[in-house]
Task: structure prediction
Amino acid sequence: MKLPISWINEFVKFPKTTKTEVIVDHLVKLGYEVEGVEIFGDVQGPLVVGKVEKIEILNEFKKPIRYCTVNVGSKVNGIICGASNFKEGDLVVVALPGAVLPGDFKIAERETYGKISQGMICSAKELGFSDNHDGIIVLATGLKLGSDAKDLLGLGETVLDIAVLPDRGYAMSVRGIGRELSLAMNVKYIDPITQKIPKIKKSTKLKSNIKTDKASKLAVVLLKDYDSNSITPMFMQKRLAQSGLRSISLPVDVTNYLMLEIGQPLHAFDADKVSGSVQIRNAKQGEVLETLDHVKRKLGQQDLVIADTKKVLSVAGVMGGLESEITDKSTNLIIESAVFDKGSISRTSRNLKLPSEASKRFERGTDSSVNEYTAILAAQYLAKYGEAKIQGISLAKKTIKAQSISFNPQEVKRLIGVDIDVAVISKILKSLEIKITKSSKTWKLQPPTWRHDLNMPADIVEEIVRIWGYHKIPSRLPNTQIGRGLSKSQIIKKSISIKLAGMGANEVLNYPFVSLDQIESLGITSKDQRHNLVRLANPLSEDLPYLRTSLIPGLFEALSRNISRGADNISLFEQGSVYIKSNASKKSIKPKLLKRPSAKEINDLNSILPIQPKMVSAIFSGEKYQSGWWQNSQKFSWNDPIEMVVKICAEHGINVNLKNVKLAPFHPGRCAEISVGNTIIGYAGEFNPSILEKNGISGKVYGFEINVDVIVNNSQDKHAPIFSAMPVVKEDLAFVVSKDVTAREMTETIGKSAGELLESVRLFDVYEGSNIAEGKKSMAFSLRFRASDRTLNSEEIAKLRGQIVSAIEKQHQGSLRA
Amino acid sequence: MSPDSNLLCEETINQAVVQALKEIQLAKNLEELKNVRLNHAGEKSPIALANREIGSLEGTAKADAGKRIGEARNKVKIALDDRTVELQNEREDSILIAEKVDVTQVLANANSSSLMVGARHPLTTIAEHISDVFIAMGYEVAEGPEAESEWFNFDSLNISEDHPSRSSSDTFYVESMDSGVVMRTQTSPVQIRAMLERKPPIYVIVPGKVFRTDELDATHTPVFHQVEGLAVDKNLTMADLKGTLDHLAQSMFGSGIETRFRPSYFPFTEPSAELDLKCFVCKGETKKRKDCKTCRSEGWIEWGGCGMVNPNVLETAGIDSSKYSGFAFGMGLERTLMFRYGITDMHDLVESDIRFTSRFGLGL
Result:
């Protein structure tokens, strides 16, 4: 909200010399951010009042040009002018040679249209305070010729752009901001609604009524014989321009002016377009109104309208209708001024995507006691500046119960931690025009009609401290309880992240938005639970309307982006939620507020949510170790991601099972299902090259995606190992077995046959080819034996070897390789 | 005396020792020293030959000669051993010197060395840092779902049905506008969940991902991160809130940081405040402030919202608001990170470019 300081100063009596910074500082302390401080109309040099003494019309050009003789006080200048909305004898604003207008427009004496032009007669547009007034500014009579016009036009004045918090509708006016500022500055305040207004008799012709519970007051004033050629007085034009509103016509300007000054939005109708009584009612479902911006608006029952007996006139509190708009032919007018339910206006303005100056005020709540006053004041302005004759007023209202607040002054100390003297509290409340009825401990407080934000003791505490000074609140630390640090699941998540980064991967945080194409390009079919996509009702882009069911699409995209930016050998990981549509189609519930929801209600609230497992996924591409002067390169391989998962799980006490499976987007022959017991932890291996190609990625990529929640739930407490200091005996054994015997089967057989003296088994070579029969392979194991209490002798080792070899022969038809 | 007894005389033996020590020192390498050892400590060395003659002596003469020869042998042995070690060291040094490398090669290759170290996203690590500060004060880290019921995200937080933040131009709705499920627009629903799951005293810190329908630009992103704090206890006041946030500000930006409270409005707190930091670039000084881009010449930087938990919110979470009071605060992690590390464009935080993340390593 833009307001010139001079307007505020009319009602708040701080010295004119008060520095802007001081005012800004007070506003900020009160909770009003000042988003901008502007100097209005940046005009330099001589700008004076002149009188047009003679107009000579030059007709030899494309359009008639005026050569005017203008008395600028000390002398008379000849000035060329293209506009024609002024006559001889009018007072105008003259920019004399040497003046600089906004846009670095320098005025100099120059020859044009065959005459010497000594300056310029200015329009509002040229002075930078209106963008649609091409016409010359014609000033009121009685001004001194040659006097400075800058003050007169308010040029060079300071304008504040003040942000008003959403609960403080009362501050969206000179009246509201002025009251607050006067409190902070401790200077006299004149309430603008104490200006004198005439009494208006009840209208005999115009009736009004309220046919909804979403409005409480309506005042309509009928005016006749308005002179549609009337010009908005300069003081009003100036203040509207300073506040960033365009001057349109006297009736519209008057309503806007009073909205800014008092905070009550008004609307002016052409009375000849209104038939019957004026009423506030709910729109009928599907009712259509063409608004001032030439858009046909379809309304619903929740929308409030101002209507006459036959039709809708305006969307109440939001925007007027085109049909009843004031035109340059309107002579009979109706001023409408109402009090609406703030939520209703907010909803309508939001649904129609139509925020207006009026709706911004109504949705924050207006003063319920000034609608009649403001309507009359508007009528008075139209009578004074537009020759209109006031015909009468019609009022409708519903009684609103004023709610009082029971308040214990001790609440201030309880919530703020500061002892503010009761007398000070009392003084602050009175200064805010809150009525106090004191009984023993608690006070009964009655906030003024404009304070919709004061409903409970905590609201009152905020007001007291706001005026007392937020900056005076002391700083101290509470005696908190003693905590236990991170939970087990938090520790596991953190350690996985550190481990992956330590293994060379870079963490990324991708958006969760995906397309169906993206999911299907991974080879995920409708049978897969990752195809149960959750859709957003209002996605940012219709191209990406779903939520991810896997972290892999995001990682592929990040990989492509990094490759396109010239990176290679990229390893990435992400830890985060995926969202799986739950099959349960439950209806949403809304537990009652102000009491704890029941266990069933909490369960119902949770049951409508998508399933949101926490996953971690990583991808690896290119070289694990690069070649160079230090060593040869080593590429990533299908086993790397599987091994990482095995290690991650082992760190949390989980011994996993591995199984070859076919699962997109992995290579059908190179994908491991990783599980613990019957629970699947995730999948790892090499990605399917044709799927990578579909995703625009060339070369081999490896990776995994695992469910962290499963790891957390299956993690085991770690116990310190018991290890022997006796010497180890190492033994390498190679077996020739059928190709379909797995490493897991072999190690299991070795383990069982060797018993507890076997410390570890490592597969160090797998070989097929010459010397090995077709359909067979050689698997070489490195075994370590150790006893806890003695050195093993060669007889014992020979016996163990024999047990192993015979077990392999028996169970896998394998033979010891010579 | 037989002529051979000359071999045993003191002078001869002394000469043999002097000669041996001289040659030992002159040996240039281990091969030469091997010959010296043969000549002066071998079977045919003068001292060995003299030793053979001892048998022909008797009495004290025998004992004296034995002693003399023993000492001579010992001197030669020690000298030989010392010289051996010296020469061995010399030889090793020369080999290792030949193996000298250019250590600056490593810097010339810093981005592709064989030791690949990854990085965690700075948003993850700053969330951890903040959590650590609060864990040190006794807080627990609380979590909640990102796709959240509208009731937790709005209703329970005293946000009215008509509140503009519920509009589809601010909030992502899941499946349909009336499904009752939204992508949480704030970490505040976790406040309610935390209160429902615990009994006072409650001290929780909630870092998390939140969603709003903003297009990505230099300062906005539809998916961003907040950290939220909640304390519910007997006798908690706004002064405790101020102290807690001052402590956080100092932990994040150094002990010299200045803060201020400014009145504000949030449906779920009352009284509410905005927490500002004194601009750490211009320090709010009039002259420098004019051109300061960090605070846009305001001298202060808006950091987060806070306040005393609205009694309605406490009651909805089943907490007696006449017995307990609470405070809550929340701030954007992207903003915090941008201030702290001079990040000027939000794109860097969301584009997953490894050149950005790798700058931050495993922790901040």
Notes: The mean pLDDT of chain B is 91. The beta strands of chain B are 140-141, 147-149, 181-183, 202-211, 223-233, 259-266, 269-278, 300-309, 325-332. Residues 122-357 of chain B form a domain with the BirA Bifunctional Protein; domain 2 fold (CATH 3.30.930.10). Chain B has two domains: 3-100, 122-357.
